[in-house]
Amino acid sequence: MPDRPVYLASDVHLGAVPSAREEAFLAWLRRAGERASTVVINGDLFDFWFEYRVGIPPGYEAVLGALADVVRAGTPVTLMGGNHDWWGGRYLRQEIGVEFLQEPVVRTYAGLRTFLAHGDGLGKGDLGYRALKLLLRGRATRFAFGLLGPEVGGRIAERVSATEGRGTPTPGDMERSRALEAWALAKLAECPDLDLVVLGHTHIPLVREVGPARWYVNAGDWVEHTTYVVLEEGSPPRLVTWEG
Known about the structure:
By secondary structure, this protein is of the alpha/beta class. The protein has a single domain (about 5-240), classed as Purple Acid Phosphatase, chain A, domain 2, CATH 3.60.21. The protein is about 35% helix and about 20% strand. It has 7 helices and 11 strands. It has helices at about 20-35, 60-70, 90-95, 125-135, 140-145, 150-160, 170-190; strands spanning about 5-10, 40, 75-80, 100, 105-110, 110-115, 195-200, 205-210, 215-220, 225-230, 240. The strands form 2 sheets. The chain has a 6-stranded mixed beta sheet. The protein has a 5-stranded mixed beta sheet with strand order 5-6-7-9-8, with helices on one face. Helix 1 packs parallel to helix 2. The longest helix is centred in the C-terminal third of the chain and has 20 residues, at about 170-190. It is globular. The model has no long low-confidence stretch (mean pLDDT about 90).
């Protein structure tokens, strides 16, 4: 279905958003599955995801079923691991059927050569998180956490998550957004073969044209903005607010 657009969302944080926001996202996902050639969710679909040795986190049955339905109907779905849900694997890939990524990739979407990454740890600042990221994603840490099981692991994750109550962007959020934008502009300058850099993480929607037919895009979030991006061949990226 190359003539269909690409639908791209980011930072949904299911499990930490109100049920009405979750229902809105599920409605968007069904619509995207009907209209898109590919659906891309660029990190933090889940407020926390980890595939334990004895199970997966509870409470995500609705979205897992919806993702599987979209894939079975013939629309590919790509999930990029974010700082809340990087620890996916076999279950998402084999049982649900999505493409689950844990590292940035370069893909062609709607005729645009695109660098796709969630964005955590990129750009200036975030030094404390970069150190923590190495620890949290290390093999020993993952092995030990996997032994805990969904109930204990979920309680730990709930305590450290800062998603609930997040609303209007803070000065820190804006600073992080500017840092990622600067990183994306530098990436485009460094790689003239790229047409588009797509990041998430900041929860702040943005489309910026940086040259003839070259853009930086951040799809925003579903915690506060309910925004997504539509990529159509021959057209600039479109930032859209979901209104049902």
